[in-house]
């Protein structure tokens, strides 16, 4: 269900003049055009500050043409695409450094095309193994089916990349002052002139012509634009990164194992690292678990009687690489969905279209968004900036047709793979997978061409 909250378009904003004159952000009285974002700074772990910059203020408000909120995959890819097209942007990131958690992401050929368009594909290829195929097994390790990617899908390229290295690679291509860390967006306000006033947790205020919300699955910018929270889909994931300092022993293939209401998989990502995951059914997301050894124990308990290859990979995993994530998505139904943009504010990545990871397409689509959005925005800015809103609408139309069906397909695939019914699972493992499944059509969506950045 899409819950329509206040539409920023229907608000009667305060004048820019009055906003510019506000002296103390703490005594500012905001009305319904502003949403409060909970302060969580105190609860966040202290991390190494990377490339800190301080925002210089003029009359208490810094002016920016383009502000990107969030230095995740969508935010950095968008800033880099804009940079390649000659458009400067400032990226605001709430953390003190690039987010290092999140283990690894599998990128398919559509993702690699985007990375090539941004000029970073080869920087990453040299660090991560090309995965040749896919082996599907039952929980006891019996092989049900295997595929070679290139036989099933022309020109397919599959590699799992470490999220940390992907983020650093994108960030390193940006100008030194492009990212402002420890800059958590607290409130957002539309001004009469159509600009957007962003207030950060530390009281800093920025007046931006264009704001690109890349602030992830719980996006405050999306909330301000009327989007509902993502819907929990009934299963959670454990992920981890196994380390083999003397070299990992696996073939360059993804292994999936399907049980009842429980599935797992692992894939070598480099000569010394192997990524693994477990998806398990749970009526609710459950309490947040932060003790790394408890996370590992819980993950191991789930699959304790499963095949030894999976258990070995998990055993080789340092506790502090393990994370648990409840999975959710948001279906952008036609007509009732809020628009991807409101004036000069637009969304990209999970902030707009959170999807379940069952097709391995969330990050790939965030990368695609970045290129399509940047091309349209840069074109509009070069034309004098009159048509920015039109450019955002065109981006929304083009990308919606791509991501709406993918979000639904990913959800349905997840439901099928999380079946608990014994008869259903027996049919899936003994008939559907060995004899009926065709991988090619399941990878059709990876043929998407994002085009070049020019
Ligand atoms: C279990 C799992 C497995 C997955 N596997 C794959 C896969 O194999 N392949 C794939 O393509 N995708 C995969 N995904 C999806 C992928 O992780 C996401 O689609 C991707 O990370 C989205 O990137 P993003 O930049 O939109 O959001 P994020 O990566 O969440 O980045 C958002 C950024 O915004 C910042 N932020 C948030 N709020 C504020 C604020 N108020 N002020 C300032 N900054 C803020 C955050 O700190 C963060 O840095 C997987 C997801 C999960 C859960």
TrEMBL record:
<protein>
    <submittedName>
        <fullName>Zeaxanthin epoxidase 2</fullName>
    </submittedName>
</protein>
<feature type="domain" description="FAD-binding">
    <location>
        <begin position="65"/>
        <end position="402"/>
    </location>
</feature>
<dbReference type="InterPro" id="IPR002938">
    <property type="entry name" value="FAD-bd"/>
</dbReference>
<keyword id="KW-0503">Monooxygenase</keyword>
<dbReference type="GO" id="GO:0004497">
    <property type="term" value="F:monooxygenase activity"/>
</dbReference>
<dbReference type="Pfam" id="PF01494">
    <property type="entry name" value="FAD_binding_3"/>
</dbReference>
<comment type="similarity">
    <text>Belongs to the 3-hydroxybenzoate 6-hydroxylase family.</text>
</comment>
<dbReference type="InterPro" id="IPR036188">
    <property type="entry name" value="FAD/NAD-bd_sf"/>
</dbReference>
<keyword id="KW-0560">Oxidoreductase</keyword>
<dbReference type="InterPro" id="IPR044560">
    <property type="entry name" value="MOase"/>
</dbReference>
<dbReference type="GO" id="GO:0071949">
    <property type="term" value="F:FAD binding"/>
</dbReference>
């Amino acid at each position: 269900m899409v819950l329509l909250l206040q539409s920023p378009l229907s608000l009667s904003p305060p004048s820019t003049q009055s906003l510019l004159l506000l002296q103390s952000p703490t005594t500012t009285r905001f009305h319904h055009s502003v949403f409060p974002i909970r302060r969580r700074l105190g609860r966040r772990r202290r991390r190494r500050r990377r490339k800190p910059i301080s925002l210089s203020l003029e009359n208490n408000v810094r002016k920016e043409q383009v502000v990107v909120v969030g230095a995740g995959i969508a935010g950095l890819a968008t800033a880099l695409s804009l940079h390649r097209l000659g458009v400067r942007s400032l990226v605001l990131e709430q953390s003190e450094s690039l987010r290092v958690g999140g283990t690894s992401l599998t990128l398919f050929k559509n993702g690699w095309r985007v990375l090539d368009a941004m000029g970073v594909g080869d920087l990453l290829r040299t660090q991560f193994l090309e995965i040749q195929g896919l082996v599907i097994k039952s929980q006891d390790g019996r092989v049900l089916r295997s595929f070679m990617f290139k036989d099933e899908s022309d020109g397919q390229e599959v590699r799992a990349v470490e999220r940390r290295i992907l983020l650093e690679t994108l960030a390193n291509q940006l100008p030194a002052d492009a990212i402002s860390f420890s800059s958590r967006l607290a409130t957002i306000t539309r001004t009469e002139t159509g600009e957007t006033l962003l207030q950060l947790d530390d009281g800093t205020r920025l007046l931006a012509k264009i704001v690109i919300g890349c602030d992830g699955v719980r996006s405050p910018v999306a909330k301000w634009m009327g989007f509902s929270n993502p819907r929990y889909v009934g299963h959670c994931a454990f992920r981890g990164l196994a380390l083999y300092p003397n070299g990992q022993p696996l073939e360059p293939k993804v292994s999936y194992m399907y049980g009842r209401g429980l599935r797992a998989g692992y894939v070598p990502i480099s000569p010394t690292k192997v990524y693994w995951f477990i998806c398990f059914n749970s009526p609710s997301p459950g309490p947040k678990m932060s003790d790394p050894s408890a996370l590992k124990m819980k993950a191991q308990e789930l699959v304790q009687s499963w095949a030894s290859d999976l258990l070995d990979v998990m055993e080789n995993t340092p506790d502090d690489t393990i994370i648990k994530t409840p999975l959710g998505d948001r279906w952008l139904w036609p007509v009732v969905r809020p628009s991807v943009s409101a004036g000069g504010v637009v969304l990209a990545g999970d902030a707009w279209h959170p999807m379940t990871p069952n097709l391995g397409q969330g990050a790939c689509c965030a990368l695609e968004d970045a290129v399509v959005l940047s091309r349209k925005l840069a074109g509009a800015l070069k034309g004098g900036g009159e048509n920015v809103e039109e450019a955002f609408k065109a981006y929304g139309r083009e990308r919606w047709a791509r991501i709406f069906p993918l979000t639904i397909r990913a959800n349905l695939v997840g439901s099928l793979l999380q079946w608990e019914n014994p008869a259903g699972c027996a049919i899936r493992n003994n008939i559907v997978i060995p004899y009926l499944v065709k991988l090619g059509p399941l990878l059709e969506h990876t043929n998407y061409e994002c085009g070049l950045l020019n």
